[in-house]
Specification:
Radius of gyration: 24 Å
Shape: rod-shaped
Order of helices and strands: HHEE
Helix content: 40-55%
Number of strands: 2
Low-confidence stretches: none
Structural class: mainly alpha
Distance between the termini: 67 Å
Number of helices: 2
């Protein structure tokens, strides 16, 4: 004899599956945020390095356009959250990089 699932059993299984999907979605949302933050920090480090290398070559670049034009960057870097280019400048003898929209 074949036995079919009853409506309460099906609803319980759907509720469990829905809860698992919700928890997985929340977890993945946090990972995306962490990845964005890591990308911003990596971009900042890359810009600081490019500015320091340019300065060592005698080029005091105060924006990304000068770094790209001088060959220190392939293309301007943008903030993954806002899509805006990072602002960079020299504060005395140290390079400063700001991620617009996150400061």
């Amino acid at each position: 004899m074949k036995r079919a699932l009853t409506l309460p059993e099906v609803l319980i299984v759907l509720a469990i599956m829905g809860t698992l999907v919700l928890l997985l979605g929340l977890r993945l949302g946090g990972l995306v945020q962490t990845e964005r933050d890591q990308r911003i920090e990596a971009d900042r480090a890359l810009l600081v390095t490019a500015m320091e290398v340019a300065a060592a070559d005698g080029v005091l670049a105060s924006d990304q356009a000068a770094l790209v034009q001088g060959g220190y960057l392939k293309a301007p870097l943008t903030n993954p959250r806002t899509g805006q280019a990072y602002a960079c400048y020299w504060d005395g003898d140290r390079p400063v990089v700001l991620a617009r929209g996150t400061e």
